[in-house]
């Protein structure tokens, strides 16, 4: 065993990793879920989601280039503020991402249940997978595992090939449905509430809960694989930005296609009661596009499986990163010397994936939870990048994105707003999921005799206060987002923006030159020097 990752992944492969992670089950189900929440105005939801994630992604692109470390998304908070912030952001991010692996397997199996065979109809009961369906999903998780187990280069080759296929099929869906059965009346039909049946609150809630943030989460994959990139300073920002923009265009076009392709029979009870088990396949069947139905059923395995394969790789790097932070046993930081893969971390994630698979058996049951959990880690990115900038020459900056002093606070406030839009009581429930990981944090603090704990606690109070504030504002906020309506719609956004900016400044002021940062900066400098 050894503890260094191989740097075998090039810019194109990293970009395909990001794009492949974004275009997973989200495109198969996201348009339907967003339409059921926001109606035709779901188009705005995707555009808004893409812009917000792009701002957030830009902060992490600079961080990824600065610290090309495997599992980077779970390490930046540790570098900037110490162990408490590092643990909370890392735990939230890992919980969100590791649960994607079984969700992708569930998505493939759910589409399989629409095949025209009697046995396939027994896989899904309309709300969750049956036992035979779980067996098939469990088998797919094993396939994802094995494709990552033997070598990094095999993962990169397989993922790039799958992503190209995943790009072609959505384009064919857009062309096929728009050409054959596109009904523009669906966008303005007064009998279904017009263009915006649920107002702006529906548009905003769709961003948080219908799989939009869930879909764009994949931009993290190139960052988590930064330690294996040949030229991280160049490759990571290209991979992050291009994957978000390309996928965003595809998702907006898919949403338009879905809205125009829905038949009158499907819409008889309105957008909010639109219930489809295999959304685009159901549209293709209704339009008589049998060739497209076959392609969609094939892609229902390829798209989610490609994402599942990618997330199996990146979550292993997250465990590797959290072990580096001191929150997991040393065995999870060991990398197989022959293949350059952290196999112990992969085995651990396999077990956790199966736990999630058997607890949550339907695609929709986890999509919103995953999105909100990830947002907790997203808010650390804009703070971290500005903390590192204030250290100046003490930190190497291979990439400095222009306008970051404007981009970072916008990203922080935007992430806070999405968190709020997820509606009460979901915001409280997700925060509780994060809190249940704290005993693990305190176990390692006790083991380390609370060394440096007081300083880490002081540096992390802003994040604790922020989470408590978000729970409170969600509870007393607008009734449109599940709150008590003490702070009405519109004013709630203003309160979040003002207080969000205060927490952003507090977070920057709380940052300090940690030992983890010094070590990470030294390792990054050596890695960047080795490229020249």
UniProtKB/TrEMBL annotation:
The keyword Oxidoreductase does not apply. The chain crosses the membrane at residues 12-30, 42-63, 84-109, 129-150, 162-179, 199-219, 240-263, 283-302, 344-363, 369-391, 403-422, 428-444, 456-477, 489-508. InterPro entries: AA/rel_permease1, AA_Transporter_AGT. It comes from the Bacteria. Keywords: Membrane, Transmembrane, Transmembrane helix. It is a multi-pass membrane protein. Signal peptide: none annotated. Pfam families: AA_permease_2. It is found in: Membrane. This is APC family permease.
């Amino acid at each position: 065993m050894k503890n260094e990752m191989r740097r075998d992944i090039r810019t194109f492969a990293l970009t395909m990793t990001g794009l492949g992670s974004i275009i997973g089950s989200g495109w198969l189900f996201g348009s339907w879920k967003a339409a059921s929440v926001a109606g035709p105005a779901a188009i705005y939801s995707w555009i808004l989601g893409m812009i917000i994630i792009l701002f957030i992604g830009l902060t992490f692109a600079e961080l990824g280039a600065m610290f090309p470390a495997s599992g980077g998304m779970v390490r930046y908070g540790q570098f900037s503020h110490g162990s408490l912030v590092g643990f909370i952001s890392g735990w939230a991010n890992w919980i969100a991402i590791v649960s994607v692996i079984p969700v992708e397997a569930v998505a493939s199996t759910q589409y399989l249940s629409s095949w025209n065979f009697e046995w396939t109809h027994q896989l899904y009961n309309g709300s969750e997978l049956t036992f035979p369906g779980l067996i098939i999903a469990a088998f797919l998780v094993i396939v994802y595992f094995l494709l990552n187990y033997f070598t990094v280069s095999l993962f990169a080759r397989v993922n790039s090939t799958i992503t190209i296929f995943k790009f072609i099929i959505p384009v064919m869906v857009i062309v096929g449905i728009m050409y054959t059965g596109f009904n523009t009346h669906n966008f303005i039909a007064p009998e279904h509430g017009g263009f915006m049946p649920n107002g702006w609150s529906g548009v905003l809630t769709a961003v948080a809960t219908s799989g939009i943030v869930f879909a764009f989460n994949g931009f993290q994959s190139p960052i988590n694989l930064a330690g294996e990139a040949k030229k991280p300073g160049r490759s990571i920002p290209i991979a992050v930005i291009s994957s978000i923009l390309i996928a965003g265009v595809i998702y907006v076009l898919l949403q338009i296609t879905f809205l125009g392709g829905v038949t009158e029979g499907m819409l008889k009870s309105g957008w909010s009661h639109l219930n489809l088990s295999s959304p685009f396949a159901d549209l293709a069947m209704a339009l008589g596009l049998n060739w497209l139905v076959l392609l969609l059923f094939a892609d229902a395995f390829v798209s989610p499986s490609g994402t599942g394969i990618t997330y199996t790789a990146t979550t292993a790097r997250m465990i590797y990163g959290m072990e580096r932070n001191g929150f997991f046993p040393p065995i999870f930081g060991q990398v197989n010397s022959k293949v350059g893969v952290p196999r112990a971390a992969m085995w651990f994630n396999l077990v956790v994936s199966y736990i999630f698979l058997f607890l949550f058996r339907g695609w929709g049951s986890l999509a919103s939870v995953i999105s909100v959990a990830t947002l907790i880690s997203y808010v650390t990115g804009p703070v971290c990048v500005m903390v590192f900038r204030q250290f100046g020459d003490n930190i190497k900056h291979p990439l400095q994105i222009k306008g970051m002093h404007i981009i970072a606070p916008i990203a922080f406030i935007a992430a806070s707003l999405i968190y709020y839009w997820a509606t009460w009581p979901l915001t409280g429930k997700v925060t509780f999921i994060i809190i249940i990981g704290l005993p693990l944090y305190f176990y390692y603090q006790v083991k380390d005799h609370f060394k440096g704990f007081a300083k880490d606690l002081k540096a992390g109070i802003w994040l604790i206060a922020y989470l408590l504030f978000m729970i409170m504002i969600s509870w007393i906020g607008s009734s449109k987002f599940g709150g008590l309506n003490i702070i009405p719609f519109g004013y709630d956004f203003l309160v979040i923006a003002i207080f969000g900016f205060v927490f952003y400044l507090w977070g920057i002021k709380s940052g300090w030159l940690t030992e983890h940062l010094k070590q990470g900066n030294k390792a990054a400098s050596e890695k960047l020097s080795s490229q020249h």
